[in-house]
């Protein structure tokens, strides 16, 4: 049986799944919505569309916190549903998972177990440090004997790393990211103009502004 190759990144905000076979990246919100009885109401983008609009019977959960698994049970439920939709049941898959570089042994184990428990036909699970995956993805010659600084800004973390000779020389995880900018915008609008907006609108505004700056 031919095996498939899948790359996974579990971000605090976005979940990305790469399929080598399809040469496609599936990007969706890493969010799950639960009912009062703790049943799954929705996952991914559908769950995110309920965020800031939900009645009290529905709870929206982001299972990843600062790059590590904060809520194991719900992360497993979310990932299992997405993989079941996206992958073929009978095929064996090899998974490469990008994980933060400075995690504890227990956190590593949790990533590993999560993968094994989320999908039936797992042939193999390999964990890859995120800065290394970023550098390779950017086309940097990671094996060269010189320092390459990689900065990955996510929603609630920023990881700054230096890569040389195929390894990570230094890495620091700062527990602040893009959501902090959204939060600053919310506070500023409230304080200066008495306008109240939510996190979703703040992010949309920020991205619009960033795009305008890029386009000049
Ligand atoms: N062009 C951009 N300019 C500024 N911030 C951006 C831009 N594109 C995305 N972001 C921000 O990056 C963060 C998402 O990064 P991502 O790596 O997808 O999240 P995570 O890995 O934490 O799930 C969000 O806060 C988003 O608003
Ligand atoms: Mg990220």
Element order: H for helix, E for strand? EEEEEHEEEHEHEHEEEHH
Bound molecules: adenosine-5'-diphosphate, magnesium ion
Radius of gyration: 19 Å
Unreliable runs:
none
Question: What is the CATH homologous superfamily assignment of the largest domain?
Answer: ATPase, nucleotide binding domain
Question: How many β-strands, per DSSP?
Answer: 13
Derived from helix and strand composition plus strand pairing, the structural class reads: alpha+beta
Distinct helical segment count: 6
**Overall body shape:** globular
Structure description:
It is built from six helices and 13 strands. It has 216 residues and is α+β, with helices and mostly antiparallel strands. The chain has two domains: 3-135, ATPase, nucleotide binding domain (Nucleotidyltransferase, domain 5); 178-215. The protein has a five-stranded mixed beta sheet. A hairpin with a 3-residue loop joins strand 1 and strand 2. Helix 2 (72-86) crosses helix 3 (105-118) and helix 5 (178-193) crosses helix 6. The chain is globular and about 60 Å long. It starts with a strand and ends with a helix. The mean pLDDT is 95. The structure holds adenosine-5'-diphosphate (ADP) and magnesium ion.
Features:
alpha+beta, Nucleotidyltransferase, domain 5, 216 residues, single chain, 33% strand, 6 helices, binds adenosine-5'-diphosphate, globular, 13 strands
Topology of this protein?
Elements: E1 3-10, E2 14-19, E3 24-29, E4 32-34, E5 40-43, H1 44-48, E6 59-61, E7 64-65, E8 68-69, H2 72-86, E9 92-99, H3 105-118, E10 122-129, H4 130-137, E11 148-153, E12 158-164, E13 167-174, H5 178-193, H6 199-215
Parallel strand pairs: 1-9, 9-10
Antiparallel strand pairs: 1-2, 2-3, 4-5, 4-6, 7-8, 11-12, 12-13
Bound molecules: adenosine-5'-diphosphate and magnesium ion.
């Amino acid at each position: 049986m031919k095996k498939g190759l899948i790359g996974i990144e579990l971000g605090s905000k976005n979940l990305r799944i790469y399929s080598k076979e399809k040469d496609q990246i599936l990007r969706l919100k890493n969010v799950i919505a639960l009912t009062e009885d703790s049943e799954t109401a929705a996952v991914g983008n559908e769950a995110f569309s309920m965020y800031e609009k939900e009645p009290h019977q529905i709870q929206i959960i982001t299972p990843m916190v600062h790059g590590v698994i904060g809520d194991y049970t719900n992360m497993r439920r979310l990932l299992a549903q997405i993989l079941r939709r996206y992958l073929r049941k009978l095929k064996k898959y090899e998974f490469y998972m990008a994980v933060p570089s400075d995690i504890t042994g227990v956190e590593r184990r949790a990533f590993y177990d999560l993968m094994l428990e989320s999908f039936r036909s797992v042939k193999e699970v390999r964990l890859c440090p995120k800065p290394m995956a970023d550098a390779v993805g950017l086309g940097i010659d990671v094996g060269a004997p010189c320092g390459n600084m990689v900065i990955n800004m996510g929603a609630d973390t920023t990881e700054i790393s230096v890569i040389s000779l195929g390894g990570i020389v230094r890495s620091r995880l700062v527990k602040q990211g893009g959501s902090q900018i959204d939060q600053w915008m919310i506070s500023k609008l409230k304080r200066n103009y008495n306008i109240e907006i939510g996190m979703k609108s703040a992010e949309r505004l920020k991205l619009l502004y960033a795009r305008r700056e890029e386009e000049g």
